[in-house]
């Protein structure tokens, strides 16, 4: 592959591989909690952060991290309080985030559709060496946190009340998930773009769980699918000249279709002659 | 020594007071059943003791320490009514039971040989060792409930708190259940359990507390089964049992009378 001899291509590939590994490692907890779309929402909020950065001539990645962390913590506090009003509160926050972002980017000196598109759909090719250093550092931090705290995060996402009675710092762990979600969204913004960030967190997990039996194996397979889709996405996009982010997501979705078919086939083969039938609650006496 | 001490407790959710003035004392080695009708506040009582429902008035002590300052949660094993909503991400029986070790191990230490041994032992106690690698979603309701007991037992607690563990559980699981609890009590463990009816756990229970309208209405030895209730193998089905059982009761002859 001649393309890979260009330094910008190598940087793009490195960035994509890091995100491909870290995003599903975090996403599995979000899927387990039924918060699959949270990454999308935080992505909307991060756009306001990009706008703030462009307007104040700061690094947009840095301001996006700060604003999306604040947004994620706000979401977590809303979620913790109640359930019914939470859904609406999230909607308000997300739409406020994207509208604020579009307006602020428009007000900045760099007010072009191109700069907006760059954040909405990713722009791997323009990734600088400094960007890669930030992506690598933060990506590694997210990955380590997700792997080290796996038992605690699994317990939390599986049964929050039980985790509380186990004496786990439930609120701290929830905030850890919120903050790492925000960080992952922001660093993935350069790779797949804010509108497709959630896909890299969720689709590899959805694909993996079609063929796995346990949580740990699902996590491992999801990370494998994530890194393969990200790598293949960048290389394929480079050779057929498509958007790397969208190409990556389509490859991950293809993996989902493949594992779903494989899972269905495997289940049909293993279909036991007669499943264990639970006796009824009531025992009838003669 | 007192394991659970509740004095003048009032508690509830969202502005609704469910418990009004409750006193309860559970000593080490006691097996106490909390009985009451649906909505009486019996589940709220144990959930408040565990810190899942905020206290409005009164005091709770666990192992002699006020609940707010209590930190030795590894001494408490909690068995909720059911497994949290299946999320789609698969988890094996072994993985779920292993979360029971977190309170004892702490969240920073990776699991070791002692943790694996405890998980095995707990699964053996409820008769599910052979299912250790299976996804919990493939288990029957009763087996899932046994998995939750194993999760609590894996932490080697001194106090076991169970919230209606036998609701909607098949006969084989009820027996496995009673066996595991009997063993736990025989080794000096303290048990506090919410029950809709005494059922197969009857021989184990030393004291019954009846909650009615947010207060303790009765406390004492559990009533002896009398008449045809005492027949071996009698399976008591209340005509006023849970909604989901009501459909079965329509055709099941209960209490020797036709239900229709």
UniProtKB/TrEMBL annotation, chain A:
<feature type="transmembrane region" description="Helical">
    <location>
        <begin position="61"/>
        <end position="78"/>
    </location>
</feature>
<feature type="transmembrane region" description="Helical">
    <location>
        <begin position="12"/>
        <end position="30"/>
    </location>
</feature>
<dbReference type="InterPro" id="IPR001626">
    <property type="entry name" value="ABC_TroCD"/>
</dbReference>
<feature type="transmembrane region" description="Helical">
    <location>
        <begin position="191"/>
        <end position="208"/>
    </location>
</feature>
<dbReference type="GO" id="GO:0010043">
    <property type="term" value="P:response to zinc ion"/>
</dbReference>
<feature type="transmembrane region" description="Helical">
    <location>
        <begin position="220"/>
        <end position="240"/>
    </location>
</feature>
<feature type="transmembrane region" description="Helical">
    <location>
        <begin position="246"/>
        <end position="266"/>
    </location>
</feature>
<dbReference type="GO" id="GO:0055085">
    <property type="term" value="P:transmembrane transport"/>
</dbReference>
<dbReference type="Pfam" id="PF00950">
    <property type="entry name" value="ABC-3"/>
</dbReference>
<keyword id="KW-0813">Transport</keyword>
<comment type="similarity">
    <text>Belongs to the ABC-3 integral membrane protein family.</text>
</comment>
<keyword id="KW-0812">Transmembrane</keyword>
<keyword id="KW-0472">Membrane</keyword>
<dbReference type="GO" id="GO:0043190">
    <property type="term" value="C:ATP-binding cassette (ABC) transporter complex"/>
</dbReference>
<feature type="transmembrane region" description="Helical">
    <location>
        <begin position="168"/>
        <end position="185"/>
    </location>
</feature>
<dbReference type="InterPro" id="IPR037294">
    <property type="entry name" value="ABC_BtuC-like"/>
</dbReference>
<feature type="transmembrane region" description="Helical">
    <location>
        <begin position="90"/>
        <end position="107"/>
    </location>
</feature>
<protein>
    <submittedName>
        <fullName>ABC transporter</fullName>
    </submittedName>
</protein>
<feature type="transmembrane region" description="Helical">
    <location>
        <begin position="132"/>
        <end position="156"/>
    </location>
</feature>
<keyword id="KW-1133">Transmembrane helix</keyword>
């Amino acid at each position: 592959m001649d393309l890979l001899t260009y330094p910008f291509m190598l940087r793009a590939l490195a960035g994509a591989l890091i995100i491909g590994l870290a995003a599903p490692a975090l996403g599995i907890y979000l899927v387990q909690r039924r918060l699959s779309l949270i990454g999308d929402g935080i992505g909307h909020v991060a756009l306001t952060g990009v706008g703030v950065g462009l307007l104040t001539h700061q690094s947009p990645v840095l301001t996006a991290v700060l604003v999306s962390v604040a947004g994620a913590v706000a979401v977590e506090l809303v979620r913790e309080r109640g359930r019914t009003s939470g859904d609406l509160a999230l909607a308000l926050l997300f739409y406020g985030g994207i509208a604020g972002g579009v307006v602020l980017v428009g007000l900045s000196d760099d007010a072009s559709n191109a700069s907006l598109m760059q954040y909405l759909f990713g722009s791997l090719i323009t990734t600088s060496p400094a960007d890669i250093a930030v992506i690598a550092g933060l990506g590694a931090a997210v990955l380590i946190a997700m792997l080290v705290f796996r038992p605690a995060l699994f317990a939390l996402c599986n049964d929050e009340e039980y985790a509380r009675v186990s004496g786990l710092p439930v609120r701290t762990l929830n905030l850890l998930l919120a903050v790492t979600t925000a960080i992952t969204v922001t660093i993935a913004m350069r790779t797949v773009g804010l509108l497709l960030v959630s896909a890299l967190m969720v689709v590899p997990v959805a694909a993996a769980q079609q063929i796995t039996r346990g949580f740990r194996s699902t996590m491992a397979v999801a990370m494998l699918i994530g890194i393969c889709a990200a790598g293949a996405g960048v290389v394929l996009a480079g050779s057929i000249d498509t958007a790397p982010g969208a190409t990556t997501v389509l490859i991950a979705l293809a993996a989902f279709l493949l594992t779903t078919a494989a899972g269905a086939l495997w289940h049909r083969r293993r279909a036991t002659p007669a499943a264990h039938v639970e006796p009824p609650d009531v025992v009838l006496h003669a | 020594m007192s394991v659970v001490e509740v004095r003048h407790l009032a508690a509830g959710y969202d502005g609704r007071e469910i418990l009004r003035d409750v006193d309860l004392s559970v000593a080490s080695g006691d097996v106490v059943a909390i009985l009451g009708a649906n909505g009486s506040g019996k589940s709220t009582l144990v959930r408040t003791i565990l810190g899942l429902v905020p206290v409005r008035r009164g005091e709770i002590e666990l192992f002699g320490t006020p609940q707010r300052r209590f930190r030795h949660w590894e001494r408490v094993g909690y068995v909720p009514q059911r497994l949290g909503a299946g999320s789609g991400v698969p988890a094996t029986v072994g993985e779920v039971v292993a979360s029971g070790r977190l309170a004892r191990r702490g969240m920073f230490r990776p699991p070791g040989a002692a943790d694996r041994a405890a998980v095995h032992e707990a699964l053996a106690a409820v008769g599910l060792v052979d299912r250790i690698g299976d996804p919990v979603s493939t288990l029957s309701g009763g087996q899932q409930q046994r998995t939750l007991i194993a999760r609590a037992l894996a932490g080697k607690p001194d106090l076991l708190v169970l919230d209606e563990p036998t609701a909607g559980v098949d006969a084989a699981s009820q027996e496995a259940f009673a066996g595991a609890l009997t063993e736990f009590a025989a080794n000096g463990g303290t048990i506090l359990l919410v029950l809709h009816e005494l059922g197969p756990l009857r021989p184990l229970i030393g004291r019954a507390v009846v909650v009615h309208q947010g207060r303790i209405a009765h406390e004492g030895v559990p009533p002896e089964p009398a008449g045809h209730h005492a027949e071996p193998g009698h399976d008591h089905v209340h005509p006023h049992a849970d909604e989901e059982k009501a459909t079965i009761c329509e055709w099941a002859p209960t209490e020797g009378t036709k239900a229709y």
